Each structure stands twice: as structure tokens, then as C-alpha cells.
Amino acid sequence: MKKFASILLAGLMALSLFAGCSSEVTSTDDGSSAAQASSSGAESQAESNGSSEDAYAGLSGTLTLNGSTSMTAVCNALGEAFMAKYGGVTVEKANTGSGSAVTAVNDGTALIGDLSRKVKADEDPDEKFTKVTIALDGIAIAVNPENSVDALTSEQIEKIFAGEITNWSEVGGDDVAITVIGREEGSGTRDGFESIFGFGEDKKCAYAAEVQETGIVVSKVASDPSAIGYVSLASVNDEIKAVSVDGVEATEENVSNGTYVVQRPFVQIYTKGTDSELVKAWFDFLKSDEGQQIIADQKLVTVDIDENTENQ
Predict the structure, then answer these.
(1) Domains and CATH numbers, the chain
(2) What is the pLDDT of residues 298-312, one digit of tens each?
(3) What is this structure's pTM?
(4) Which parts of this chain are annotated as the region Disordered (predicted)?
(5) 151: exposed, middle or buried (Cβ count in 10 Å: 0-12, 13-18, 19+)
């Protein structure tokens, strides 16, 4: 029997035991338990009929992923199903932010890096990584459900985060000072949001707080009627409210058709030319009907993975 374990936030551990065989995905915030990427064991590729099920029969080892916290839920869901399919495999997901993904693959502590944004040119100057967009995700502009504001324009959002609009009454809400919550430097969500709204070296966001996790943004906005933040669309729940942007609601459909412009890719990278059967099997699984359904179930927009693979 395999156990499913997930270590969240400040190293808390929750164990869930299921009848029969279950799956185990270990998820950490600091990468400390992400074992050295290992593809040892029976990573033999069967020669029978070329189908994905037969091609990786006997697959075993540890598949390590590291990077974006926004991608934790989808990686864990995919990891559970992947381990259920291949009983000899363990998947470990470390959550140290998109900025750590390249370093983790470079230094060998992860076979796959997770970025909730595109890979920057200076992160891969020698084009040593294969970059795979596995899904598209909307970035929701989140407010407290008690906030009467349901819609903002792009200009209003930019001015709120720049500190030029400081009271909700300026955008049709109550006479309450706005509390701006953001993510830490290196966050893919922050990078995506700031790029979309024109922030950079010459123009900074005026954050009241910068936090390390998507879940912390959710909890802060949920507990503070004056707060505003940005989170993965997949992280929106009943505790927060996603406002419409320029009259367009934040939905998977509107991300897919391009009318909701506050969006970014979910990207996974690995060393080009890898001989790891674990990596090959993982991406074949993501392309399968089962993998695509799991991605869609996480409120993400599926893409043609073959057409969204660069530098193979």
C-alpha cells in the first residue's frame, strides 16, 4: 500500500489512508525533502506494441518536480494518477516558486521544473531546456466577498496596485482604504501580473504585504474586506471573489477564447535530450485523455502539448 502525503505551508503534514492501493505525492514549500532526481529501477521500455501503457511497463523511481506554488494542485493531482498507473513510481513536488525551477533542474534536485510563466531568456541563454506549456491559467483579481465592487477596468487595477487609487470609494465601493496584497519576488504569478499591467524597474507595485504562497493571498483577502490581491484562477473559492476585468468575467472559457486577458501559461521544463524514462512517461501521460481531463478538472485550460513544446 502506498500512502498519499502532502506537506503544506509551514511544514505541516497531513496523511490520508485509503482502502486498497492509494498514491503518494509529497509536496513541500522549501524543497528540503525533494530527493536527488532518480530514475533508478526498472525504467525499461517494453517493445511490444508501442502503446503508452506497454512502453513504460515496469517503470520505477522517483520523479522530482520543483517550482511554482500555483501549480501545486495540478501537479499533485497528476502525480496521484501517474503513481496509480505506475506502481513503482514516487512523485515529489517541492514548492519553492517559479524562480527556483531553473536552478532545481540545473543542479539536479529536480527532473522537472514548474513555472507559472514563460521561461525568461536569461534563464536559458544556451537553450538547454525543453519547455512544455501544459495548460493556461487565468490570474484572478481577488477581493473579499463583502466588497461591493464586482468589476474593475485594467486602468483601475493598475492604479490600485501602483498606489494611485487608495480608497474603494474611488472605484464605486465603500469609503475604506485599500489593502494591496502581492506575492514575493520570484513568484510566477507576480511576474505574470506585473508584466500584464506594465510594472517593472521604472514602475513598482505598492504592496502592503508580500507573501510566499497563493494560499496565503487567499486567506488574507478572505479575512480582510479591504484587501485586493491576485491568485491563480484555479485557487478561487467561496472565501474570495474574482472581479471582472474590462467587463469580462474570469472563467476558463474566457481564458480559452482570449477575452480574459489576465492569463499566463503553466510551463514545465526539463534538460533537453534527457534519457529519463520517468520524464518521457510523465509527458506522455499529460498528453493522454486521462491527463488532459485531470488538467481540466483543476479549472485550467488544456492545450495541445505537442504544439506547445519548444526546444526539443
Answers:
(1) 4-137+266-310 (3.40.190.10), 138-263 (3.40.190.10)
(2) 989 999 999 889 865
(3) 0.76
(4) 29-53
(5) middle
